[in-house]
Amino acid sequence: MQRFLDEEHRMLRNAVREFVEKELMPEAKELDEKGEFPWDVFRKAAKLGYIGASLPEEYGGAGMDYLSEAIITEEFMRAGSPGAVVTATLGCIPVFYFGTQEQKEKYLPVVTSGKGVSGIAITEPNAGSDVAAIQTSAVKRDGKWVLNGSKEFITNGNIASWLVIAAKTDKTAQPAYKGISNFILEHPTEGFAASPISKMGMHCSPTASISLKDVEVPAENLLGAENMGFYQIAMFFNVSRVFTAAAALGLAQRCYELALDYAKQREAFGRPIAAFQEIQFKLANMWTEIQAARLLIWHTAKLIDMGQPDAAFSSAAKVYATEIANRVAYEAVQIHGGYGYSKEYDVERYYRDARMFTIVEGTSEIQRLILGRFLTGRLKF
Amino acid sequence: MDIVVCVKQSYDVQQLKFDPSTGEPMLAGAPKKMSDMDKRALEEALKIKEASGGKVMAVTAGGSDVKEVVKEIYAMGADEVYAVMDDALKDADTTAIAKVLAAAIKKIGSYDLILCGAASTDGYSWQIPAKIAANLSIPLLPNAVSLKVENGKVVTESDLGDAVYVYSASLPVVVSVMLEINEPRIPKLSAILKASRKPFNQLSLSDLGVEVDAKMEVLSARMPKVARKNVVFDASDAAKVDEAISKLVEELHKENLI
Ligand SMILES: Cc1cc2nc3c(=O)[nH]c(=O)nc-3n(C[C@H](O)[C@H](O)[C@H](O)COP(=O)(O)OP(=O)(O)OC[C@H]3O[C@@H](n4cnc5c(N)ncnc54)[C@H](O)[C@@H]3O)c2cc1C
Fold first, then answer.
1. pTM
2. Which superfamily does CATH assign the domain made up of B2-208 to?
């Protein structure tokens, strides 16, 4: 698959792989057990230009393309949850697309320089898949916006230097999605509180519940135009879903490598288990699905680079890569037998990490609804 | 100080796949990468430049696949890179390659220190550094695990297998380096991007006035077979344990393992 890339992307891939194998892989298990965001690795990665690589150089990025970002994300996630340092740029996507010059200059370099991480808070306790149903409110008062409500499952919610927050600015809007706006909220701000949620996997990627009580946001921190938030979120997903897919792909790739190595070493009935057709078929399927996912992801990233982001491809890449990651992780555990279920072996944590990916950034069901609508022209939400 | 580093684009041997029926490496389309020890030589050159100034130049010789390594060398931070690109070099022997590299170094002009990996990752012949030194009629300090340049002199700690020797020589000199000498840097993304815009300085064999006719013929290259002996020592009940242990020890002695 390397041969598919031009020299620049191949060099990038080799450099990132070397970094991850040197700086992240040897400590990944320990980092995952500690369950903290690996700040050291994040800062080193930022120094080398791996955080926000697709952002223009004037904001501290490397001015590369989304294909590069997809490659970087895959390579980082080969290390499992500690690779989630690349989620630092979650909030940068909408700010880059819809922010003013001042907002971009103020907020993007915080992340690309490795000083802090960002996030985006859409989901609420009573509104996940149904984004239009959010209830957090933003009301204009004395030239400021005042936010009230709560957010749930927010990646980096408790560690971010700033967050993009989706809120209702017009409660009467019909349909409801036309009344949503996005705001940039700095941390710390009075009335903002975040507490971490304990999870099944992805232990190095903190997830938080957030409460907003009369949180004041300066007028200039409205992102883009008022009541255009839903469209901004849709555009955000076109891009972010490619990275979510690439992240899941990284897990799948590593699971496959671990399973292949193990199958060659482990003997049963007097021969390596890799000699059994049943195991070979599993490996054949795992490998094929990984290649297919990678091509879909690279193609989708390329579309964005060509200025033609395609929601159908973003959804297809997201649903496919995240589901094959779960299948591949499942089979990797199966090939490891009892050892796969023990914490001694890495596949156990990859299996737990993979589970998140069919849920975040729009569940598999939602991706299929989006695709169904594109394919049939019928709205079925 | 002008430093010239010799760099080879090698097969990435860790990613090599072997034909299961013949045991031969499948080289068509196999991934390549900068030879490991050469990368250390380049890192060492960059470190010297960063500490005391100078210019880092690199030469590489091979087929058309040297283009990629040229960018990688730039990305790490070399000032100038020269590539001798000719299909005749693909399977040239070490004598011919060393002659070509030496001619390229002379063509570049001035040099104080020439650095190269002690052996390449794929060919692993350990011959090139000495042959370059011979072609240029300057000394070689081989297998350096550390290197210092002071007052026009180079001091190395050189690992020759039986012991680590301390050598010193006046410039100009060739130094070949071992893996232990340093930990090479990973290029920054911005450097990778800039590398694409740097000039590709190509030298042809006729530019150098060198003819390459010595071809290396590979008679055989096979994946080593590790056959398991499957010797079982019966220790199925307590009475047999002592005997099993002494048999095991005896067997290990026979195999020269203890
Ligand atoms: C680790 C983690 C990190 C996260 N990070 C973020 C973040 O940074 N920012 C953020 O805003 N959110 C984040 N989320 C939230 C995530 O986006 C939501 O969990 C997700 O969108 C689903 O919403 P929900 O949990 O409310 O499930 P629900 O919407 O309640 O869905 C429950 C089930 O019903 C199905 N379902 C819902 N509607 C339909 C339908 N119309 N047809 C068929 N099936 C349907 C869903 O697919 C799912 O299986 C994160 C979640 C996790 C677990």
1. 0.89
2. HUPs (3.40.50.620)
